[in-house]
Amino acid sequence: MKKELRSPVSQRPHTAEDVNGKSGIGSEVSIELNGEKIKVALGKSILDICRENKIHIPTLCYHEDLCIAGNCRLCLVEIEGMKNLQTACSFPVTSPVKIKTFSDKVRKARKHIIDLLLSEHYGECYSCVRNNNCELQTLAREHGIDSYEFGHVCEPRFEIDNSSAAVIRDMDKCILCRRCVRTCIDLQEVGVLEAINKGYETKISTFLDLPLSDVICINCGQCINRCPTGALHANDPSDEVWKAIEDPRKHVVLQTAPSPRASIGEEFGLSPGHSMTGQLNTAARRIGFNKVFDTNFSADLTIMEEGTELLNRLKKALVDKDENVKLPQFTSCSPGWVKFIEHFYPEKLDYLSTAKSPQQMFGAVLKTFYAEESGIDPADIVTVALMPCAAKKFECNRPEMNSSGFKDVDYGLTTREMAKMIREAGLVLPELPKSGFDDPFGEATGSGLIFGSTGGVMEAALRTVYELVTGRPVPFDGLNIDVCRGMKGIKEASVKLENCKKEFSFLEGIDLKFIVAHGTANAKVVMDMLTKGELSGYHFVEIMACPGGCIGGGGQPIPTSESIRKLRAKAIYDEEGSLPVRKSHENPKIKYIYEKYFSDGPCGKLSHKLLHTGYYKRGKFIK
Amino acid sequence: MNETEKNTRREFIHVLISRHGAERTSLLPVLQEFQKKFGYIDGQSQQEIAFAMNIHPVEVNSIISFYSFLYDSPRGRNTVRICKNIVCDFHGSSEIADAVRKEFKLNSGNTSADGKITLEITNCFGLCDKSPSMIVNENVYEKIDKDSALKILRGL
């Protein structure tokens, strides 16, 4: 994903584009792959060639999103004339080689490697969160491992680090593939995990081996998504959720975020890209949630608040010439991103919108407005949030998130944990009948739904802001603002505001410039631009901590890759296109709640109390 | 560590970086020179170095833990290394190590109470033909025995 990888030039994967057009070198080379003669692009790795030719090469440290490491040695292949076996992932083909991918030597070597990994790998598969979805387990099965050739660790050697609200580290299961290291340092540029010591004593550690809660972790959970084993997993509150469901005094309410519905099918064997909205609602009701609401409703609420905040800032800057107003305004929906900016750019917190994330807005609304309307004591309401996210677990436990007088959101469940609960309840999700969300927060718009993908918040906000300002829908075909969509790391575009309404005449003729970025490595690029003053003239920036936005979140089904994320995004956009209401401000329930409860409008006094928040200047120094 | 001490270290780090450059490749010389002056590289300084070079503190931590000659915690003024590999062991290196521990009353961190020496039991340093061997700071002593080893260390 990233061009500037940390690895030295010599270790970077070579691609055909690098060599094309260079004089003296042909762009194709004929090789022999398992006896079959084929032509391949010069410089392509053996692994890529094998995958294109439908030959399965086992890998552990390799991951599509990350730079090549070549440390697990499982992808070894035999090349005629070479004394040693070579790693397929890091071997670019530059000469007419003859490759054997499953010779006796190769199979023996691979089996030995797996045996050695297992000799250091503590724990039994049946007592592991990743049972049945573990790459080491799959490899052991593929290679017919039926005994521990070199023994097996029988006692735990490390203490489990469960200090973090989001990510649990169980280093006994670690196989040192360093995917988490490359995720944290290269992909996310957070830099929590790295290998310490050397040789036999190597282990993956945090800075000074501190507990995860004490280091600069943004809880994005991307390391979990890329861990091949159960060494990293999310902090699972499902036992408490079950307890609440079984307690007859408790009124347990589930809110489901837009992206889990596009991905949860994968946990039940479906291919990526199947939307399960209706089935998920049925499953949640059968499990025993008293009400099932749509987080898209509060996403719409977020758009109203954040959009109004943007207009307020623009007005202050343009009409009142207030120099203290910070523009561009950054979105604050992604709790990983919020913690990222709190740590790395604490001096830039004023640029961040004060609007809470949809999850927290919903929690606050449920324990105030909903409790009043339905006559339930908010102390008896348990709010559970189904999120694609590991950082949401941290967010709902932030001490300031209690504006309703109670803990706004009690538990954050990831997509994986919800799937586990559904399986525990004996339900087969894809076979369930469809059902809708409950009133009063069941109605949501397409704008809320597309929050799940990178660019979605921007697209939703533009639809509303443009229409509030001009009275006309955004000038894009079918409301689809395509410049916001897609997996490009940083996208930027602009919309011209013309023929504005009277009260917004100060915006007449302004080019509303915006940026969409996803993944905190890209966020860092944007923030560095801001520091250098290159963002003057921009008005709105959307940032999501995870690659691909929420659909690539740290709580989503494993595995993840760009192609999977694209399919999930497509499922969301397809569903969105068919919804009757697609603009947040046209949501009848949003109109209702502003009439009935937040009667002084978006960014009013009450909404400031319940729907907005403040941030901590955390800084990046660990004391 | 008090604020003045922290500031001294911070200033020294910036001197080192202006001397060696802020690229990744300058990390090792910076760490070595820092250690030469302060004896070890504390957590605070690791972070200072990392931020000054635009890398992550955990990477600095990782590098320090990788190299046996870089330390992240305070140690005795002199580092004594005794080889534990098989040839030295045959020639009595473990008895010598025990004698050193006893003589200098080393604690669990293998450092003497007066901070004079830190003992490190290391892997082979390639002096098997002159075993048992010992390295004190940067000086190598060959074919030592209990008495000669203690004599060398007492004279430090």
Written account of the structure:
The complex is a heterodimer of chains A (623) and B (156). The two termini of chain A are 33 Å apart. In chain A, helix 10 packs across helix 12 and helix 10 packs across helix 16. In chain A, 33% of the residues lie in helices and 12% in strands. Chain A folds into four domains: 94 residues, Ubiquitin-like (UB roll) (Roll); 120 residues, Alpha-Beta Plaits (2-Layer Sandwich), CATH 3.30.70; 120 residues, Rossmann fold, CATH 3.40.50; 213 residues, 3-Layer(aba) Sandwich (Fe-only Hydrogenase (Larger Subunit), Chain L, domain 3). Chain A is of the alpha/beta class. Chain A is built from 20 helices and 17 strands. Chain B has two domains: 64 residues; 77 residues, Glutaredoxin (3-Layer(aba) Sandwich). Helices cover 49% and strands 12% of the residues of chain B. In chain B, helix 1 runs antiparallel to helix 2 and helix 1 runs parallel beside helix 3. The mean pLDDT of chain B is 91. Chains A and B meet through strand 7 of A and helix 3 and helix 4 of B.
- Assembly state: heterodimer
CA-based gyration radius of chain A:
26 Å
Instruction: Strand order, main sheet of chain A: write it out.
Output: 2-1-5-3-4
Give me the number of helical elements of chain B. Answer: 7
End-to-end Cα distance of chain B, whole Å, is 28 Å
Alpha carbon gap, first and last residue of chain A: 33 Å
Number of separate domains of chain B:
2
Keywords:
heterodimer, A: 623 residues, alpha/beta, Ubiquitin-like (UB roll), Alpha-Beta Plaits, Rossmann fold, 20 helices, B: 156 residues, alpha+beta, Glutaredoxin, 4-stranded mixed sheet, 49% helix
